[in-house]
Every structure is written in C-alpha cells, then in structure tokens.
Design a protein that fits this description.
Blueprint lengths: L1 H24 L3 H27 L3 H30 L12 H6 L1
Helix pairs in contact: 1-2, 2-3
Length: 107
C-alpha cells in the first residue's frame, strides 16, 4: 500500500504543478479558473488519497478522507462563484477568443 500511496502522491504533485503553470500561462480569468480548479482538485485529492493509503484508517487517515470530500465539494463551487462574479462584472474574455457562448445565449 505504501508504493501505491507514493505513486498517488507523485501524480497529485504533478497535477498541482500543472495547475500552477496554468495559472501563470493562461490568458484570462476563465481559463485560469478552469486550470486551477480541475488540476488542483484532482491533484490534491490524489495526495490526500495517497496519504490515507499510507497511514491506513487512523485518525489522520480519516481526516484526509474528510478533507478530500470537503475539497471535492467546495473547490468547483467556489470556482463557479468566482467565474459568475467575473462574468457579472463584465471581465472581458481573452482578445483572441473566437466565440462567446454567453452572448449567444443572451441575444
């Protein structure tokens, strides 16, 4: 179980790093939110799951499971709220974006 835990932690760290790179590289808030939420949610969940496998069902392992569940519920919800607030504040899309589905739905 320790080897599986180490592999999951490695995968989680790689996903977290990719999420951080996405925050730096993507051009607008909407793309950055997508990169950070998906990569970091999956990455951190893998880290917590790997830690749980390494620790077993001890008090710390149960806390890791609870933290993972809380993360899986709150991260997408907060990302959606931030994106919706940015849209209401009329934060523009990337200049080279070809289509805006929201405008199409509103008109």
């Amino acid at each position: 179980m320790n080897n599986i835990g180490i592999v999951l932690i490695g995968i989680g760290l790689a996903c977290d790093v990719l999420g951080c790179v996405g925050l730096l590289r993507f051009p607008d808030i909407y793309s950055r939110l997508q990169a950070s939420t998906k990569c970091v949610t999956f990455g951190t969940s893998c880290i917590l799951l790997g830690t749980t496998l390494m620790l077993g069902l001890t008090a710390a392992g149960v806390k890791c499971i609870l933290a993972m569940i809380l993360l899986l519920v709150t991260a997408p919800t907060s990302s959606h709220a931030i994106a919706r607030a940015a849209r209401r504040a009329q934060v523009p899309l990337w200049k080279q974006e070809k289509s805006d589905e929201r405008k199409r739905k509103l008109s």
